[in-house]
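Worked problem 6 (solution included).
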Amino acid sequence: MKRQLWTGAGLMFVGIGAVGAVLPLLPTVPFLLLALYCFARGNPVWEQRLLDHPRWGPPLRNWRERRVIPRKAKKAALFAMGVSVAVTAVTAGWPWVLIPVGVMVLSGGWIWTRNE
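Solution. The predicted structure is:
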């Protein structure tokens, strides 16, 4: 039963990651990392398929083996967060803009301090 739950969660995260591949403000790799974590516990064959994927395998392996985020990915993540802050400022205004600002400061700071 646990294996099916892990596999189901992994499939859900792959689905969200696939949506993120086409939507500019939704990240892909973090959801695929979550899928990888779930598949490692529920379906090792699918875990290996993700690691072997020609497009998404290299960043997943880089994170798993060395805990690195390439500079290009860092800049893209911070740019997307900045766009999110700007859109929230224009559409929702004060004080709602403080939420994405807080998220950007915390998660963006963490992302920027990772190895390259």
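Discussion: The mean pLDDT is 88.
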